[in-house]
Amino acid sequence: xxxxxxxxxxxxxxxxxxxxxxxxxxxxxxxxxxxxxxxxxxxxxxxxxxxxxxxxxxxxxxxxxxxxxxxxxxxxxxxxxxxxxxxxxxxxxxxxxxxxxxxxxxxxxxxxxxxxxxxxxxxxxxxxxxxxxxxxxxxxxxxxxxxxxxxxxxxxxxxxxxxxxxxxxxxxxxxxxxxxxxxxxxxxxxxxxxxxxxxxxxxxxxxxxxxxxxxxxxxxxxxxxxxxxxxxxxxxxxxxxxxxxxxxxxxxxxxxxxxxxxxxxxxxxxxxxxxxxxxxxxxxxxxxxxxxxxxxxxxxxxxxxxxxxxxxxxxxxxxxxxxxxxxxxxxxxxxxxxxxxxxxx
Length: 345
Hints:
single chain, alpha/beta, TIM Barrel, two-stranded antiparallel sheet, 11 helices, 14 strands, 30% helix, globular
């Protein structure tokens, strides 16, 4: 399909009542994961989605195509659970990269298995990767994730960089009394390899519903821990990106650009007013916000034989109802029933 034909098919933007337009699609490919991070799920895991309820590879690609060709999506990120355990991942990435206009394609992963699949993903058209890494200490990693796979994550990071999936970004959640002391060491590690580090405030999305704002390490605390690096405000506008970024004087990244470190203050520095995301769960539900309590079923439309136009209209209607903000500070705030592993990061 050529770009001219594609542009003629655009149904319109994924706009909401507050003037925001969603151009960034997060697609969860599975709710399963090969780690058991303490802040995400219990040691025994969760009740996984039955296979028949999950979108097939072809259904995923079709919905992504509708989003790109008809609804103006320009960025597609595949998430989980853990997306690398999806058997059809390389084919899904390849089909997405072949769409016109071509979206930017990335994944968020825990990095386990990335050393094996980084090169095939790059060849398929993957542009970039985000790898979750909360500690540099193997023993602490084992305690946090309940799996002895720290070396696998480090090998995955190096493989991603070697394959050209740059800039390689690291996502880190600091937790009070667990790993909050590692902020400087993690930044030094990222700088030494040319990775870009993003610290993320812990959000109320754990399966156990034990999140406590008072024990969360805040953006201000993270920046205070990084004071020895003499960070400078980034002159480049963040646009709709979730991370506030700072330059790290005296350092460059793998591309020779000024090194940056980011902080995603989802709780204390919400960016809801500039949010440009729409989310598709592994079972084909549209979520217009990470903290939404309602979903819109696209899987049923697909399996009932709906035309692309009908799917696009349903997606637009789902996004139109998006709230102004996530409401975490509202006394009436309710944590979503689905945990992060089932929603997609």
